[in-house]
Amino acid sequence: MKIAKNTVVSVNYHASDAQNNLIEQSSEPMVYLHGGYYNTLPKIEEALDGNETGYSTTLQVEPEDAFGEYDSELVKIEPVERLPQPLEVGMQFEGSPDDDGEESVIFTVTEVADGKAVLDGNHPLAGIALRFELLVTEVRAASEEEVAHGHVHGAHGHHHHHDEDEGDAGDHFRSQPLN
Ligand SMILES: [Zn+2]
To answer: Which of 31, 30, 107 is nearest to 71 (CA)?
Structure first.
C-alpha cells in the first residue's frame, strides 16, 4: 500500500544534527496518521508520501521547518525567589514571555547562579537543523474513527479512557521535548 492521505505509517527513525550527533533514535517505530494532521513534521510527510513499506530516505530539515529559529528574546533572567522551589537546572515550567502576554511557553531553567536563574523559552531543538534517516516498516489504511479523531489508535498510538479526545499523543516531532 502506498503512503497517502489517511494511511497509518510506521517508521523507524534516527535523528541527528548537522554534525551527525545523535539526537534521538527510535526504539519502537513512530506510528502516525498521514495526510496533514500535524502528527509529525510536514517535511517528513512530504518525503514519505507516495512510498511503500521498505522505503528508506535521509532528509535534512531546517529549523524553520522543525522547531523554529532560536529566539534570544525568549531568554529571561529572573530572581530565584520569583520561581518555584527547589529550583534546579533542567526544570521546566509554563510561563508567559511578556509580563502582560497571554501566550504561554515552556521555559527550561538553563543556569542558576548568584540568586538568579536563566530561563530559556525556546524549544530544546530550536535553531538546530535536523537530519532524519527514515525507514518505513508498515503502511495500513486508517480506520474511520482514526480519521475522525486525526490521530492513530491502538498499539503505539493514542489510547482513550473514555470518549474524550486528549489530542496529541502521536505528536512526536512537533511539540514533545526530547530527552
Ligand atoms: Zn482518538
So the answer is: 107
